[in-house]
Design brief:
InterPro entries: DoxX (IPR032808). The chain is mostly helical. About 85% of the residues lie in helices and about 0% in strands.
Length: about 140
């Protein structure tokens, strides 16, 4: 595979990782009252502060992963990984559930752990990009 195709495929993979976060951040911007209600539903107060922080991490982290090189992209990926871990622990507490609710939350929990792994891989790759270039 040539370098241009590899670069395009790598960008598309990062875009796939970021898609849910970009969508969620834009949706929260367009429906601020819904964003506030979501934060309040999970007991996060003040809801406006948590909604604004969520939007900033979702959109800012995604922008860094998609458009910034090296360590900046790594920082964006780690921000999204940390956000996803916190959101997963808050929003998919399967250990408190039973029956189908437990099944759904466990599946969502495990899927989110996979996203975290993907962002950590991006951070590791991007964090060593300059070092790899210097060795080439």
């Amino acid at each position: 595979m040539n370098d241009a195709r590899r670069a395009l495929l790598y960008w598309l993979a990062r875009a796939a990782l970021c898609l849910a976060f970009v969508y969620s951040g834009v949706a929260k911007l367009l429906d601020w009252s819904g964003a506030l209600a979501e934060q309040a539903h999970f007991g996060l107060q003040p809801a406006a502060l948590f909604a604004a922080a969520t939007i900033a991490v979702q959109l800012g982290g995604s922008a860094l992963v998609l458009f910034a090189p090296g360590r900046k992209a790594a920082c964006g990926a780690l921000a999204l990984a940390g956000f996803t871990l916190a959101a997963t622990l808050i929003g998919h507490a399967f250990w408190r559930e039973t029956g189908m609710d437990r099944f759904r939350d466990l599946n969502a929990f495990l899927e989110h752990i996979g996203l975290i792994g993907g962002f950590v891989l991006v951070a590791l790759y991007e964090g060593t990009r300059r070092r790899r270039s210097a060795l080439a």
